[in-house]
Amino acid sequence: MIINDTLFEHGLNSLFRSRLPTKVAVALSGGPDSMLLTWLLHKHKINHNAFDIYAITIDHKYRRESRREALRVHDYVKNWELKHIIKELDYDEGTDPTSLKNFEEVARTKRYEAFAEVCYQESIPAIFVGHHKDDQLETFIQRLQGNSTIFGLAGTRRISALPVAKDLPPQADNHPQLRVVRPFYNYDKQDIFDTCAVNDLQFVNDPTNLDINLTRRNYLRHMIGDILPEKAKPNSPYEIIDRPSLEQSHASCLEFATLFEEKAHNLSMYLQENNLIETYPSMGSMKIEFPRVCFDPETTVVTFARWQVRNIQNDHDEFSV
């Protein structure tokens, strides 16, 4: 499938419910996903004067070529209507990132901190990322291995809160929670490659993405794309974990988790509308009164637990400014 302007615009309207912010950021690694996403945002801006775009490229400093590649990305987008920012990651003094055994985790945390810093400085409420269905599947398998809950197995959502470290910049106190937006949520990686090819979009190939020994996600990508298609043939023991089966399992987890998310949301609305929540800030306590109508023998415990998570984290899928 080719992701054309009409499909992309429809997706934006669905995500933001026609309440687009005046500024957005986009995580621009230079790969096909982020290049296509940035290009489509650029075209949408030209056609609708929709928002100011801040494209953020992270130099992980893991390879000598990374700075040069970041500058090449700048050349690709310099004539697009956006502001391009290159951020170099800083590690502890004397630390060589190539020596870190948990580089994937460290780089992810520092990357999101860099995104947050730019967005808070520029008063940007949303950052776009190029996550797609293949990424979702990798996350699903990764969390299966980690014995995740049903909500973890459901994966990332189309809109979610930005995961950042506890020490936020001072500007964070004056802004709403920064949101991560995923317009390619329902598209396959092949859709993105095909759209780049049709529009002759240039992008950078990062060789570290092919190093299956560098990150667990790289290995999972190799397993899904190379190993399973070869092994999961009819009547083989691997047939039950072929890609379609895994996708269906993930879809079932997402559907089940969404059911409880909706129940938790409805419970929250009911309690608020009927003034059944009382807070006592000076005592650090809260009183909640649950009427009998709220109790469902089959789902009460999970619904209440999810309601607590949603209200503590304020992590709603609906975008709000």
Automatic annotation (TrEMBL):
Its EC number is 6.3.4.19. The keyword Cell inner membrane does not apply. Coiled coil: none annotated. It catalyses: cytidine(34) in tRNA(Ile2) + L-lysine + ATP = lysidine(34) in tRNA(Ile2) + AMP + diphosphate + H(+). GO terms for biological process: tRNA processing. GO terms for molecular function: ATP binding; tRNA(Ile)-lysidine synthase activity. Keywords: ATP-binding, Ligase, Nucleotide-binding, tRNA processing. The keyword Transit peptide does not apply. It holds the Pfam family ATP_bind_3. Residues 23-222 form the tRNA(Ile)-lysidine/2-thiocytidine synthase N-terminal domain. This is tRNA(Ile)-lysidine synthetase. It comes from Candida maltosa (strain Xu316) (Yeast).
